[in-house]
User: Fold this.
Amino acid sequence: MMHLLLTLLDLGGTFVFALSGAMAAGKHRLDIFGVMVLAFAAGNAGGILRDLLIGATPPSAIAHLSYLGVSLLAGFIVFFWDPLVSRHNHLVLWFDAVGLAFFAVAGAEKALVFGLHPVMAAVLGMVTGVGGGMLRDLLVMQIPTVLRADLYALAALAGAAIVVLGHMLDFNTIGSILVGGLACFFLRYMAIRHGWHLPMARASQTHS
Amino acid sequence: MMHLLLTLLDLGGTFVFALSGAMAAGKHRLDIFGVMVLAFAAGNAGGILRDLLIGATPPSAIAHLSYLGVSLLAGFIVFFWDPLVSRHNHLVLWFDAVGLAFFAVAGAEKALVFGLHPVMAAVLGMVTGVGGGMLRDLLVMQIPTVLRADLYALAALAGAAIVVLGHMLDFNTIGSILVGGLACFFLRYMAIRHGWHLPMARASQTHS
Amino acid sequence: MMHLLLTLLDLGGTFVFALSGAMAAGKHRLDIFGVMVLAFAAGNAGGILRDLLIGATPPSAIAHLSYLGVSLLAGFIVFFWDPLVSRHNHLVLWFDAVGLAFFAVAGAEKALVFGLHPVMAAVLGMVTGVGGGMLRDLLVMQIPTVLRADLYALAALAGAAIVVLGHMLDFNTIGSILVGGLACFFLRYMAIRHGWHLPMARASQTHS
Assistant:
């Protein structure tokens, strides 16, 4: 049951990030194959990196076909119904926030299962959440938006930290995952809607 | 015998991609050491990524000296006889197509040996083929050509898929590798010579 | 004792490279979280890559909290006392040279402990030294300076090679590490102060 829930969270996050990867590819004139490659990279890089770091080889995204299937589905949707997706650009932004929440809590939970220190489990939850977007942006040559976007990585860390705290305090796992996921989504929501953000490095005001 | 054949395919691909990495370095005013680093990165990134993903650690390129030796040889050739290599630029393009074919079939075969699902074995064959070129392009700050070049990644996937199909149908392994490698080369040949290509994402026509 | 020495070398290198990552983030207007992410990435990417390649999972930087702590400390220092750090920019350059020396010798020693071939142990020492800076530069979209900077990667390789040679000739390990580290620092010093450099690829004079 627990295992099924985590797999569903992982696949949901994969689908949403694969959508974002395919849309980035479309904007850069890639052919249908480039679209699929970017969909798979964006949807799975975070989870693959997490699995390599915790020693879970081969990574789930390589060992199970479902991750590839979900990524290709997202790629086809963007490729063939792009106008549809484009018209609902804001919708994708919200999907992306949901995907970040999915990945952050699933990543933290899996790291705990593999026996990592709680603090690093929270960090790995964050890595799972932001990894796919980072690779997507690097492949199309942009400074990763997760390094710039307001409260993006912090929202992922907060959600992952709640899952870890719940685990340490012996709370119900599904409850922790729900609260952690909602907290991540809420922070991202406030950043998008109401401009919540963190202080900038002072250096930026002086040097650039 | 089988093992020897695969090693030869792997080393042949490494040599050709190392040439391409060294040439990219030369165009960006890197010193001799930068040339060697890019030669090694381009020649081995695909194979190292494959080995990490299938859990074959340490990767062949780290465990055996021959990969380093072949990469440095390619780097020296480009560094000291660059005018020679430059004059035969089209030759290198064909070498590159051969290297892609080598890596695609060797990567798929190795993934099968490590017990991966056939579909993912084909995907990993493709990853082996395109990984080196992607890192090379990222290091000199270009959108990876494998994401743009006509039928590049698809040719690698086709070659790898034929090896996997042959394995599932219990065909002769060497025969499958030959047919898969030739198919990959043929597709790439048609893309270079006769402009075969895949449809572009419609988004590109609207947005850019 | 030996293990403690290596851990100290590793943490010292992590701290210095984390400083450089945080400063790069500050120049690109990242928020405090982006600063921390770049500090951790620059300080630990080399060691994590080394550990993945030699099969030491989970990598030290994931398994032990101290690496995260040291990275965040460096991030906070740059974020809150940036003017202080900026005024001593040349000091950071020297710290960076010290960090390169730390990582090169620690990386080579760890690879030897894991039973790699001596030549590859030297290469992995170099990878440990230059990996963090490469990821830092990629994340802020610059051609990695380690590919351009004079005698940077070569200094790391020389230091690592001395550690490996000492090991093969059965010299005292601490002595080899000291000599290797000083050699790396000396080469980098001569490159910065007196412009020592390697020959450029001839291609650069013709093409660009």
In short: The CA atoms of residues 132 and 156 of chain A lie 13 Å apart. The mean pLDDT of chain A is 84. Chain A touches chain B through 33 residues (CB under 8 Å). DSSP finds ten helices and no strands in chain A.
